[in-house]
Specification:
20% of the residues lie in helices and 44% in strands. Strands 2, 5, 7, 9, 10 and 14 form a six-stranded mixed beta sheet that branches. A five-stranded mixed beta sheet has the order 21-19-16-18-22.
Length: 347
């Protein structure tokens, strides 16, 4: 009975062994087309891209056992992702960079487990590979149309710029700089005031050969300082009234006489000053007078004519236009007649 059982067991064992050997020895071929992505490894400082027109899929010819081929055929849908870091490209030219796909895939056994890669089409992938470099770049202030009493300047005067190494190599001798157009930020600012403005920087490097974008700036904003020159405008004041101004004592005890009878009661005056104030004065929003000040009797030569020149009550910053003068008037003070002399001497 025991011998009868052993014979079939040995037969089954031999059958399984033969099947196993057949599976090990049988080799199948598979050609599979898969997407491929090549990119820079995080933190590598590299920038990787494929040339325009470079295939985004590859065809891989595989040889392997039937069950491995079947497994790959059924599961190989995800793209192959290749990440390049600084160690992978050490001592090799960056642009253009040639990547041997068969070498790359053979080093990544997990992509086609259990199979041998016989060929890859295309065999070479042509890439753009560059390094990000950090350079210190000066900041320049663009000359503008605004007039300043203190010219615009920035703080700090330079920034750290992240830029592709190949790009910087092309502009290193072309005076690279970051440009600040001060007029853009100062055009509507108050005049004759020390200004201190935080302004953003445009991440573009200017050069004698044109401009190129920067990847980032540190810092990305600076402080702009300047003082705008007060803009001067001109205007004409029509019919400015002439007013006499004196003390009550003089007014009550003296008559004020002009040598020329019926002198002008108004003046026409040309003025200069800040545009806003000139507009207010010429529109009549703010009133202006030509004031003749008659001093105390101690300073007056009674009964004799003296020259008095009026003064305008102009706001700060506004003056007579260059070359403009106000006319002088001949004036004297005369004691008023006493209507009742006897009453004047009464105790």
């Amino acid at each position: 009975m025991l011998e009868f059982i052993k014979v079939p067991t040995a037969t089954v064992f031999l059958t399984l062994l033969i099947w196993g050997l057949a599976d090990q020895l049988a080799t199948e071929i598979l050609e599979i087309t898969v997407p491929i992505q090549v990119r820079e490894a995080p933190g590598s400082g590299l920038v990787v891209s494929q040339f325009n027109g470079t295939p985004r899929t590859i065809t891989v010819r595989l040889a392997g056992r039937q069950r491995d081929i079947i497994a790959i055929r059924e599961s190989r849908r995800n793209p192959i992702v290749i990440e390049l870091d600084a160690n992978r490209i050490k001592n090799r030219a960056l642009n253009p960079f040639e990547l041997s796909l068969i070498e790359e895939l053979n080093s990544r056994k997990s992509n086609f487990r259990g199979c041998t890669i016989e060929s890859v089409e295309p065999g070479i992938l042509h890439l753009n590979v560059d390094r990000v470099e950090t350079r210190e770049i000066p900041i320049r202030v663009k000359p503008g149309q605004i007039q300043y009493t203190v010219s615009p300047r920035v703080e700090p005067t330079s920034v750290l710029v992240d830029i592709l190494g190949s790009a910087f190599e092309r502009i290193a001798d072309a005076q690279p700089h970051i440009l600040v157009d001060a007029d853009t930020f100062l055009r509507d600012q108050p005049e004759d005031v020390a200004l201190k403005l935080p302004i953003p920087l445009d991440p573009v490097i200017q050069t004698e050969r044109g401009q190129i974008p920067a990847r980032s700036l540190t810092p990305d904003a600076v402080t702009l300082r300047a003082t705008l020159r007060q803009r001067v405008d001109y205007g004409t004041l029509q019919a400015v009234p002439i007013k006499l101004q004196t003390s009550p004592n003089i007014f009550n005890n003296f008559k004020i006489e002009f040598r020329v009878p019926n002198p002008a009661e108004t003046l026409t005056v040309k003025i200069s000053g800040p545009l806003e104030m000139i507009n207010r004065l010429t529109s009549g929003e703010r009133k202006t007078f030509a004031i003749i000040n008659i001093g105390s009797t101690d300073t007056l030569n009674q009964a004799k004519y003296q020259f008095f020149r009026p003064e305008l009550n102009l706001p700060p910053g506004v003056t007579l236009a260059e070359g403009e003068t106000l006319p002088a008037f001949e004036i004297r003070v005369v004691p008023r007649e006493i209507a009742n002399p006897e009453r004047a001497h009464a105790p």
